[in-house]
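Support request, please re-run this one:
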Amino acid sequence: MARTGLQAALRSSAKGAPPTQADSLKPEFAERLAVQPSRVGKVNITGYFPPEVKASLRLVQAKRGGTIQDILAEALNDLFAKYRVPESAPRERSE
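Re-run finished. Output below.
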């Protein structure tokens, strides 16, 4: 039985390009690793909150329109203004 894992990766990298994470995934999952054009040059910022926070965001979204990202950008810019730092969260939707 052939060994897999680190030794196999070392052998394949010696033959050419090193294996990537996508190489070890099924094809239908590997394509998900590609970066969407709209996400190039951006970073993901996350946090864990109670479910009620998401429900409140959805209520604001229903009243205001736009996306959750638009609402979060507005909230972040308000926070930045409060602390007198550059308002750097881009807003996709005009108010």
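The first helix runs from residue 6 to 15. DSSP finds four helices and no strands in the chain.
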